[in-house]
Amino acid sequence: MKIRHLIEPEDLSIEELDNILNLGSKIKKNPEEYSKTCQGKILASLFYEPSTRTRLSFEAAMYRLGGSVIGFSSPKSSSVAKGESLQDTIKTVGCYGDICVMRHHIEGAPKAALMKSNIPLINAGDGGHQHPTQTLTDLLTIKSLKGRLNNLTLGLCGDLKYGRTVHSLIKAMSRYENIKFILISPEELKIPKYIREEILIKKNIEFKETKNLEESLVDLDILYMTRIQQERFEDNSEYLRLKDTYILDTDKLKKAKEDMFILHPLPRVNEISTGVDDDRRAKYFQQVEYGMYIRMALILSLLNIENILKKDNIVDEEIIKSSKKCENSKCVVNYERNIKNIYKIVDKDKSLYKCFYCDNIQRLEGQEDIL
Ligand code: NCD
Which end of the chain is more exposed for a tag (fewer CB within 10 A), N or C? Predict the structure, then answer.
């Protein structure tokens, strides 16, 4: 039996995703009904990077299902501090837990770990790459507030380069009908190439890249604000220069539709002034609440307690081995020992390939590159 994992949004089919969202709403209405469903089950929670909402919502989710939680909230208190590899850690964890959730500062770390995992593994955020469970939260919030996931214009604003929640949200929302994206960021913080080319352009999704929040507001059904991700910048002076590019306040909001909702994965720094919190359209704290229920639904699905995930839904993509390491210095292949350099094909004629772990698009030319 193949184990299912959630590393990126595409790991779930649209049908499975919809069923998980429906289960999330059902649990929210009547959590008591599910309070014993995970009795005797253990969630291993491995957080190599700081977190408030994601870690606590996963732990609360497991406890509310009647299960237990083991793990760490800082790598300093685990054997990683002694130099243990990620894959050895995950093999060990598989002996203790039934399901594992991992947050890591290195891009592609959960994907490298899953290759040695004998229990379902959930990516709770890997560097500036992906954050699929925040996306589940966002989808449940949008569906509950708007009643639909199609026919929407979404404005994504702030750090679109390093903001992993944005990358996963674009991947997921671009699978629904008639979705338009307005991508609002400074030039330096535009979406990565693999999102622009491999998702938006390839799938023919309507999108616009702009610097101007105020001009964009009038068209939006959802405004998704994000924090400028200080921890991902190589040069802190660059962060200081960009950090207050966008500050949403009550004055700017006058331009927005009456039924536009404001979301934010949180934590916020300065990008939404606290005055906005009292506006009916501000939904980011409600979004936090949805996060716990959807994680309860996800745990029940991955553990097969709720029969939602199909066993045969795993698409095996063609993988190319190479002697070349991924050029992204933040990719897991540049940190961990014994991780193979493998790629997916983007455009064979142009010799373009995408790193299997972090999605970075790069050129692999000669036969000596491709094994
Ligand atoms: C986000 C994250 O960790 O990527 N937070 C979250 O999980 N709710 C967003 C952020 O840190 O800015």
Answer: N
